[in-house]
Design a protein that fits this description.
Elements (H helix, E strand, L loop, with lengths): L2 E12 L2 E12 L3 E5 L6 H8 L7 E6 L2 E2 L4 H7 E4 L11 H11 L4 H14 L15 H12 L6 E5 L7 H16 L3 E6 L2 H7 L2 E6 L2 E6 L1 H8 L3 E5 L6 H11 L2 E5 L2 E5 L3 H10 L4 E5 L2 H9 L6
Parallel strand pairs: 3-8, 3-9, 6-7, 7-8
Antiparallel strand pairs: 1-2, 1-4, 4-5, 9-10, 11-13, 11-14, 12-13
The chain binds adenosine-5'-triphosphate.
GO cellular component, one term: plasma membrane
Protein name: ABC transporter ATP-binding protein
Subcellular location: Cell membrane
């Protein structure tokens, strides 16, 4: 599959901070690629370099085969960008925010109006077209940023935390629209802290930490590899903790204790549950999740 992004040995230093550290990555055309990482992992910095708003310290980025440092203007025409913050123009109405944006892409007036109306209706904002930005709720502003990103019919959409702060209804609307765009062949790159979002939308996910990619695979592949499809959990009585530890160590399973609950990864789950149940332990099993993988790889401590 051809690469939408070819990132090689990419590094970004801010004075003494290395935000992105010699990172190489291919993102394929037509896929939805999810970038996960704790605060400060370097996700926004990576997105800023990809969107040409922050210069690279080292390395190269090719987008649809073009060198980003040589042809930034052409590359920007491929993009729809949904930034983390709200950079809407408060002086303009909702629809004017879109039609003015269309001018950067030299889309003629009538076509711009049509596209703006289409994008507004896609994100259920048509009734606000003439309204002021200051009268929009936070969720509406985010939806407007998404609508604005579609104005140039982009081949690639880059979204930095697209659904943060949205209520569940708006979040599902956004997910549904992103899936529709993907089915039309648009390449999506999203950063998120929302594990469900990453699992639901992404074909592949990279887990980023301290400027590097720690793991990269399909959501299912990451779960299978790092924690197993099912995780066994045990909540032992305090006096039985030692017995449980001995039992788990004897079986050689990988486990972690989280607030008195033992989580066991990559085990023969049915056998383990039955055996521990017979010994009188309070034991159950659940599906392994991307969140388990994330915590396992990036740790429980606050990183910042
Ligand atoms: N303009 C800047 N000047 C100096 N340091 C910066 C700047 N922007 C980011 N950093 C630092 O670079 C590192 C990566 O930050 P970045 O914002 O890229 O992480 P992130 O993964 O997007 O985090 P978050 O999820 O909190 O947005 C952090 O240590 C951050 O403090």
């Amino acid at each position: 599959m051809p690469a939408a992004f070819e990132i090689r040995n990419l590094t970004k230093h801010y004075k003494d901070v290395t935000a992105v550290d010699n990172l190489s990555l291919d993102i394929f055309e037509g896929e939805c690629f999810g970038l996960l990482g704790p605060n400060g992992a370097g996700k926004t910095t990576l997105v800023k370099m990809l969107t040409t708003t922050s210069p690279l310290t080292n390395g190269t980025i090719h987008v649809m085969g073009m060198d980003l440092q040589k042809e930034p203007r052409q590359i920007k025409a491929f993009y729809g960008v949904v930034p983390q913050g709200d950079n809407l123009d408060p002086e303009l109405s909702v629809i004017e925010n879109l039609t003015t944006f269309a001018r950067y892409f030299e889309i003629p007036g009538e076509a711009a109006k049509n596209r703006a109306n289409e994008a507004l209706s896609l994100f259920k904002l048509e009734h606000k077209a003439q309204g002021k930005i200051k009268n929009l709720s936070g969720g509406m502003k985010r939806r407007l940023l998404l609508a604005r990103a579609l104005i140039n019919n982009p081949l690639i959409i880059i979204l930095d935390e697209p659904t943060v702060g949205l209520d569940p209804q708006s979040k599902y609307l956004v997910w549904q629209k992103l899936k529709e765009l993907k089915s039309r062949g648009v390449t999506l790159l999203l950063t998120t802290q929302n594990m469900d979002e990453a699992a639901v939308l992404s074909d592949r996910v990279a887990i980023m930490h301290q400027g590097k990619i720690l793991a990269l695979d399909t959501p299912k592949g990451l779960v299978e590899k790092h924690v197993g499809n099912r995780v066994v959990e045990i909540l032992p009585e305090e006096q039985c903790r030692g017995e449980l530890l001995a039992e788990l160590n004897k079986r050689g399973y990988e486990f972690e204790e989280v607030e008195s609950i033992f989580q066991v990864f990559h085990s023969e789950t049915d056998t383990l549950c039955a055996d521990l149940g017979k010994l009188g332990f309070n034991v159950w099993q659940r599906l392994g999740t991307l969140e388990d993988v994330f915590i396992k790889l990036t740790g429980r401590g606050l990183v910042e």
